[in-house]
Amino acid sequence: MKMILISGRSGSGKSSALHALEDCGFYCIDNLPRPLLTDLIKNIANHVEYENTAVSIDVRNFSGDSDQLNNLLAALTEYNIEHQIIFLDSCEDILVKRYNASRRKHPLTSEQRSLREAIQKDKELLTPLMDAADLVVDTSNMSIHDLRDLIRNRITVHQSHEVSLLIQSFGFKYGVPTDSDLMFDVRCLPNPYWEPSLRNFNGKDPEIAEFLSHHDSSKKMLADIQGFIEYWVPMYKKSGRAYITISIGCTGGCHRSVYIAEQLTKYFNTLYSEVHLKHIQL
């Protein structure tokens, strides 16, 4: 049996993630009261119809107590239920915009606590869950469709014991993705942006690939990052990690980081069966 615990700050997309799992055949429960979580585990343990279950956990049913989380995980282990914790997050400004646009009330707001303060308190209370998560997803730059695709590709497809790699490019000037396990800065490489004839291309185009591949620094950077990942991913796998997110950053996230991410993806597709590619700024 398998249970996925979906958690994250309010407004980060937990409901959308739960809907995606439901579409993939999971029995989904949104915001089950905390005292009933252990009872749920006991009752589904021997029922085939609940073989794949997903439960949403937020500040309404988690008080931020680490012991509470440990007891929950212990119960899952006791009943031989395979489990994963997926934590969704988003930057504070994006969460504020989402709440203002939806005109919904944050569960922690009150006369004494503003929306921004509630969002900050939300993160504080959920820190133990984020620290224990098997996969942290930054939804700041995701649409609902992007999030559902990610859930389908990285979670529901991930049924083997193979490690799942996500290689993503981004631009430092837009902020760093918070879901990174490994991050590499390639801003020291020659920048095609300063070549007028190349500015309107991106790192997926052959013109940019040709430009960067002719520089020894690009070749060396690619080889070093590739070697680091190739050596350390098996170590992460041995420690029980099922998901690894590798972020490659340049200034704008359109040329150098995209090129390096594309090349890494081509290489690691020959070594692993679950390699995903994402360009945040494209």
Can you characterise this structure?
ATP binds at residues 8-15. It comes from Litoribacillus peritrichatus. There is one protein chain. The chain is α/β, with parallel strands linked by helices. The protein folds into two domains: 2-156, 3-Layer(aba) Sandwich (Rossmann fold), CATH 3.40.50.300; 164-279, no CATH class. The chain is built from nine helices and nine strands. The chain has helices at 14-23, 35-44, 66-78, 92-102, 115-132, 144-156, 206-213, 216-238, 256-268, and strands spanning 2-8, 27-30, 52-57, 82-89, 135-138, 164-171, 182-185, 243-250, 275-279. It has a five-stranded parallel β-sheet with strand order 2-3-1-4-5, sandwiched between helices. Helix 2 (35-44) links the parallel strand 2 (27-30) and strand 3 (52-57). Helix 4 (92-102) packs across helix 5 and helix 8 (216-238) crosses helix 9 (256-268). It is globular. The two termini are 38 Å apart.
Q: Spell out the CATH superfamily of the largest domain.
A: P-loop containing nucleotide triphosphate hydrolases
**CATH topology descriptor of the largest domain:** Rossmann fold
DSSP summary, beta strand count: 9
Span of the ends, CA to CA = 38 Å
Please state the overall shape, judged from the principal axes of the Cα atoms. globular
Query: What is the chain-wise order of helices and strands?
Result: EHEHEHEHHEHEEHHEHE
Note the quaternary state here: single chain
| CATH architecture term of the largest domain | 3-Layer(aba) Sandwich
Beta-strand residue fraction: 15-25%
Low-pLDDT regions: none
What is the residue-averaged pLDDT? 89
Number of spatially distinct domains: 2
Pfam family, one: PapZ_C
Organism: Litoribacillus peritrichatus
Domain RapZ-like N-terminal: 1-156
Domain RapZ C-terminal: 164-280
